[in-house]
Amino acid sequence: MGMESPIRYSIVVPFYNEQENIPDLYMKLTDVMDALGEPYEMVFVDDGSKDNSYKVLSEIYEHDHRVNVVRLRRNFGQTPALKAGFDFARGDIVISMDGDQQHDPAEIPRFLEKLEEGYDLVSGWRRSRNDPWLMRQVPSRIANWLMAKLSGIELHDFGTTFKAYRREILQEIQLYGELHRFIPALASSSGARITEVPISNPQRKSGRSNYGIGRSIRVFFDLIMVKFLLDYSTRPLQFFGMLGLAGTGSGFILGSILVAKKVFFNENIMTQHGPLLLLAIALFVSGIQFISMGLLGEISSRTYYESQNKAIYSLREVKSHRKEQGDSAESARPFGSTER
Ligand code: UDP
Ligand code: MG
Question: Considering 77, 131, 176, 316, which has the largest number of Cβ atoms within 10 A of its Cβ?
């Protein structure tokens, strides 16, 4: 694909209120990346932090020309922040990680080794988890199991952002919601070779997690959507047909049982089983309708975003030492352009 970029590695890190973690992480990253001896850049995304994160990042930017700071206009969330970083990154290889020091830069070379072996995407695998058991580990276990089954990709851990990619892989993927964890599924549908490496999972150094059980629920909906997009977006009737069949099938069976009770045992269905029957039917039908509406909504939102090339984030400003020709927003929109 065209010329090799002069930058080999881009490290993308989203930050939301991580002022205490930034300097430490930056220093460790610098050590590790310098040791690799190839040109690299850091793309630090400030996701609308309310603490001094942006100030800390700006100070680092001032004295290191390899550091870029992308600041979002407000707090958009981890996935849009990552996407903003991915869009800005120019390295042949993109490495994403958390900014709260739950990911150890010293493990980056192991990701890169796998890429050298020919993989397109290397995902971290938290072998032993340090998160609260009931609220984080259990939902994550279930989600990982479901995702592996649904996507057919044999990864143990879909939930971590610690990953390395060839940049082409990322360019083809649209990200929404909590979708960053589905990059492997989406990438593999376009033929990417995927593998994983075990990583450590230390506690956050400071600050607190931005997420709790609520995210598991959002992840679950994204899971349904990704499954739908990958398998059924071109043949939705098969998907809805299956649901419809299951609904009408069980309704028919239940109805038959009730009829049999009426005919053979002369039970009065309306007085003895009526409310139960109505409740079951109502729940089932409305359940189907909710799922269908959610999926249709997702489809139309994709049409909306992709047809208009609408970004899922909005930039406040970009700081970069880059001096590339023909790559800036200005050159894309020549002077004298009549539109807008
Ligand atoms: N993050 C972000 N925007 C948000 C929430 C989190 O950019 O709205 C960043 C956060 O600063 C961290 C990473 O995403 O670098 C992971 O967040 P967190 O540690 O809260 O998630 P957890 O590790 O608990 O899954
Ligand atoms: Mg964390």
Answer: 77
